[in-house]
Structure formats: C-alpha cells, structure tokens
Amino acid sequence: MAKILVTGSAGFIGFHLAKKPLMAGGEIVGLDNFNDYYDPAFKEALNEILERFPGYRLYRADLRESEALKKNFSGK
Questions:
Q1: I need a surface site. Which of 1, 2, 16, 19 has the fewest CB within 10 A?
Q2: Positive or negative, the Cα torsion across 56, 62, 64, 65?
C-alpha cells in the first residue's frame, strides 16, 4: 500500500479519509494548520485518534506556505 498525503487531516473530512487506510495498516502523512474553520480543540481530539496508528505522521503547516512545506518535506 502506498503512503498517502491527506491535507486537512485533523478536520472532519480529512480525519475520515485518513482513518480508513490507517485501520487497514496503511501509511498516512497528515498535513493540517489547525485553523479555526472547525474548533481547534475538536481538531486536536481527532488528531489524537490518528496518532494512535503507527502509520500516521502529522506535519503542522499551511498548504499555502511553501517554505513550511519545503522544511517539513525536505527530509532534513
């Protein structure tokens, strides 16, 4: 199974998109900036569930900020 990038992984839709492959043993890279579109506490709670899966890795960054993406995904 391939590693999958899920943007907005701590939001309602992203959480559900990430959880299903994780339950099947997949690998998910989550990307979320934890903005207040949804309650940030709610997003933190959803992210805590995803973090229980060994195949999950979260990057806290905004997809629109190219420097943050380069830093997170450069492997350095």
A1: 2
A2: negative
